[in-house]
Amino acid sequence: MHSGRAAGGPKAGSSHRTVGRAGAGERPSGEAGRQTEPTILTRTITKIVRVIPRLAFILIAGSALLAIAFLLQSRLAERRAKRLDRERGRLAADIGSLQAALLAEPEGSLSSAQATVAYRPAEGPGAGGDFYDVFKLGEGRLAMIVGDLSGHGRAALRHTALLRFTLRAHLQSGRGPRDAIAATGAALSGELDDCFATVAVAIYDEHDRTLIYSTAGHPPPLICGERALPTVSAGSSPPIGSGLHTGRRETVVDLRGAAAVCLYTDGLTDASAAGELFGTGRLEAELRSLRDGVSAQKLVEAVLAKTDHRRDDIAACVLIVDGGGEAPRIISEQILLDAADLERGRLSAFLCACGVEDRSSEAVSSAARQLIEAKGEALLDVLYIDGKQELRISSPVALSSKGTETSSHGTETRSEIQMTSRVQIGHEVELGAEEEPTLRRGSTRAEQLAAGGEARGMLR
Q1: pTM of the model
Q2: How far is residue 344's CA from residue 365's CA, in Å, rounded to a whole number?
Q3: For residue 306, pLDDT beyond 80
Q4: 335 and 317 in one domain?
């Protein structure tokens, strides 16, 4: 019996172990079934894929690829735009540097006056159009030029250099501001391509303390002494390169007292703050506030400090004249007329702006018309002498800045017999060829205009 139990024991134990192995093997089989069971998301996607037609699936996939391509292209375009902006900035800086290199250091020192200049190129494609020049014309005389070309960029550099040196050459040859502008306009006709230029040209003479200036489509200089000097813009000359005859107006100013004169380009007045242009009135106020020790650089910095946007170059020339308390005053306003000017009413507008009475205007218009019919052009001077106004009409022979006679086109003449008109209010107009005394050589235009012995057409 003992041996039977021993034999049965192992069998029972063996049976238990077999059952145990079988039980242990069943649990992994259940876990594997649960792991392979699909989730709700997987079943949903599978159903959608089975429902969507193959063509639609291809279209959706293609759209996704296109979206990725557009995103990549956008990124590339953004990087390209940033690179172009950097290159444009470098190009504008190069243009500004080239323009500054073309603008020589000013020769602006006289015993009674000092001229300073400032130039700021625009940021971006607006750079390269402005120019200036300041140089001496013999003993005690200083010439100043400020201009603005309609073009910008590299193409403008050649034109600005051509304008500047042509104007300089005519001034150095002895022409006055008006004649220099007229001669430059004639010489550069068709040379500026599709561009045109506005300029302001002035000559200061410290011997007689006068400033003679002329503009062509450009703002007149700001002149401030004890008070600001109002200017006459009626009958102004058109820009150089506009296809019209220019060099038609000239003004003489007495600067016996202390004064500040500013020639500038519109980049200074067109600078804006909060969308509002700085304007001429504010520029004049800045010039007056900085009159003691003012320089062109300080003036430009003061304007830029009060503005937040500018789209154009800035060029400025400031002349500081030492002296007493006498306020600046206009000595002469001059205009060159032809038949077309009379038809357009240019003479009437000019006389009205100068404060000439209607009765005098009618007599002057009549005399000017007769002189134009005989000579083609007439030169009218409105003079302010000793508090009185005088009008002088002559044939188109202008005085150069040296005091010598030049024709309206700038060539010298030695004629002593000219067509003149003598007009007296309330009397008949007499027109005829009369002998004129030879103008004093070497005297200034202001002295000759003020001399009472000239045989010029005169209206008192």
Answers
A1: 0.70
A2: 13
A3: yes
A4: no
